[in-house]
Write a structure and sequence with these properties.
With 228 residues, this protein is an alpha/beta fold. Helices cover 23% and strands 16% of the residues.
């Protein structure tokens, strides 16, 4: 379910030639993440009551292949705090593919233990209800609260990053972090905001509004320094 660029109309022959009186349709050209689809308006946000009820790991790769990819993304460091935060996140989603709750209970207990240990020892909170794309890199650790609606592919995160709500009466208003976003140390992204593809968030910036694709944002509150 991934799309990034879209091309023309296609007739029934499948040759990609425009057909008269046909309705334009978007055709995928290259994969993008769930987060990027939300940003580009290609998918509606999941109902909050449905969060955590299904396996939301990337659908185009198996569980162990995904874990191996995360391991390579964290430079092959088995004891990397970022690797273990991602491992338990992936595991928490994978266990939801076990439909029978009774059979899932031991996996749930193991998941909860792993998550608590990761929070205590690594200082990284990443609930399995956050939809996380592929090749996410957690460069450093400590003081990280990563509660977003979705995080895209090839995102870089650093220590003391916070994603979350902007106000107590806005529960469920979480940010969406697009593909290839680079987040500086101590950055805070709050509320129902979208950070576009390839954007860079400076260290200690506080983001309360949407950041366009390719932009550089710094300051408190964050302001756009550069656009592509």
């Amino acid at each position: 379910m991934n799309v990034s660029e879209y091309k023309g109309e296609a007739d029934g022959s499948g040759l990609g030639q425009p057909a008269q009186n046909s309705v334009p349709r978007r055709v995928p050209a290259q994969p993008i993440s769930h987060a990027q689809m939300l940003i580009e308006g290609l998918e509606s946000p999941q109902d909050l009551t449905q969060l955590g009820r299904a396996n939301n790991n990337p659908a185009d790769i198996g569980f162990w292949a995904l874990v191996a990819e995360d391991y390579r993304t964290q430079e092959g460091r088995f004891f990397s705090q970022g690797f273990w935060a991602l491992f338990w996140h992936r595991f928490g989603n994978w266990r939801m593919s076990v439909r029978w709750k009774l059979l899932r209970m031991p996996l749930t207990l193991l998941y909860r233990l792993g998550v608590v240990l990761t929070e205590w020892m690594a200082g990284i909170m990443l609930p399995y209800t956050v939809i996380v794309g592929r090749r996410v890199r957690i460069e450093h650790f400590g003081g990280m609260i990563l509660i977003a609606r979705a995080i895209g592919d090839d995102v870089i995160l650093r220590q003391n990053t916070t994603f979350g709500i902007a106000r107590t009466n806005g529960l469920g208003e979480w940010p969406v972090i697009g593909d290839e976003v680079d987040i500086g140390a101590g950055a805070v992204v709050l509320g129902n905001v979208k950070v576009g593809r390839g954007a860079k968030i400076g260290a200690n910036a506080v983001v309360l509004k949407d950041i366009p694709s390719g932009a550089v944002a710094v300051g408190v509150p964050a302001r756009i320094l550069q656009r592509t």
